[in-house]
Design goal:
By secondary structure, the protein is α+β, with helices and mostly antiparallel strands. Helices cover 28% and strands 29% of the residues.
């Protein structure tokens, strides 16, 4: 239906191969693009001084957490 987000359309923004000196500029650009919907920003160091930046909105984060394995509840597998 129109107005509903398709699950395949909700993917976080992932930017690979960013050098250290461009991290702040790249993050600022993503914040300007997504505005108040930014929920989480992750920066990971990769090979040869390149970094990966992942920018998630609240909806993208909730979908990712829902897809991950659920946490153990009390009494599960404890002897």
């Amino acid at each position: 239906m129109p107005g509903e987000a398709n699950v395949s359309e909700i993917i976080p923004e992932k930017i690979d191969g960013i050098p250290l000196y461009l991290i702040a500029t790249t993050i600022a650009g993503q914040i300007k693009k997504k505005r108040e919907s930014v929920f989480q920003i992750t920066v990971e160091r990769k090979f040869f001084h390149g970094y990966t930046i992942i920018v998630e909105t609240r909806d993208e984060y909730a979908l990712r957490v829902k897809q991950e394995a659920p946490a153990h509840t009390e009494g599960d597998g404890h002897g």
